[in-house]
Amino acid sequence: MAASLPVLRALKIKPVIITTPLGRELLKDEFSEFILLQDKKPVTMIKLAVEIRRAGFSDIIDLQSNDRSKILTFFSGSTVYGSKDIEMRQPATNIFADIARKSGFLGQLDQSYKVCTSDYIVLNCGSSAKWLSKRLPDEKWIEISQVLNQKFNARIVLSGDRSEREYLERLAPKLAGTVDVVAGHTSIPELKELLQNAMLTVSTDSAAMHMSAVQKTPTIGIFGPTNWIRSAPWGDWSTVVYDEKFYPDGEPPQQSNPRIDRYFDGITIVNALERLAPYLPSKL
């Protein structure tokens, strides 16, 4: 959902957005009309499919294009634009743009940029319990914080959800510089604002990474067990890093791997910071 924001903003008409309550929380400050899928129970799906048909849409842009969304829109009576014949080996935002472009409703994506000189950097270090394989070893976050502290001397803010707070509270004292932990204390709109106003975000492959990038915050996505081509953060102000020794052919895994492994031994953000130099302040 976060990766779709540049596309939703570029539509020539204000859309009615079919999403979950979580999706509405992310989008409610920018869009006003929603149809909600409250849960994934079969009876709820049937009711939502009926509601979509009754709405009488002429066109539906199916950005999700998974089995669930195809079922929901099959009986809509609308012209549905999905991912058929779309090149999938590209960042998610580009995939969504190609889908929306089929409809004729997509304008130009806003790729303008202005350097932000705020006084903090967001590190989004965590991951859900299901995806502990995305977490870097503590020593890598210590190394990253030292590089950032030396270059920017900026406050570090650790973001995440409530389940990650204990992990981040343990990590925070080990990091260089001034560190604040906000994990578990931000709503989705508050996290969106925090990321929007940051000077830089360094993040594991996550929703927060995409939320940062689509708001034009320079973003470094750190990848290990997931696909850094398909899940790359959007924009010229964003980049990815992965361990080139672990992936010597430069090919990302085609399927996300929940198995914990040594994905991050060779990770460094030094070259990524050089790539993003045009989008970062030279000094604070």
Classification by helices and strands? alpha/beta
Question: Number of helical segments?
Answer: 10
CATH architecture descriptor name of the largest domain: 3-Layer(aba) Sandwich
Biggest beta-sheet profile: 6 strands, parallel
Percent strand:
5-15%
- Order of SSEs: HEHEHEHEHEHEHEHEHEEH
Q: What report would you give on this structure?
A:
With 284 residues, the protein is of the alpha/beta class. It contains 10 helices and 10 strands. The strands form 3 sheets. Strands 7-6-5-8-9-10 form a 6-stranded parallel β-sheet, sandwiched between helices. The protein is globular, with a radius of gyration of 20 Å.
Give the SSE layout.
Layout lengths: L4 H6 L6 E3 L1 H7 L6 E3 L5 H14 L3 E3 L5 H8 L4 E3 L10 H10 L18 E5 L13 H15 L2 E5 L5 H7 L7 E3 L6 H9 L3 E5 L2 H7 L5 E4 L15 E4 L28 H6 L9
Helix pairs in contact: 3-4
Could you name the key traits of this structure?
single chain, 284 residues, alpha/beta, Rossmann fold, 2 domains, six-stranded parallel beta sheet, two-stranded parallel ribbon, 10 helices, 10 strands
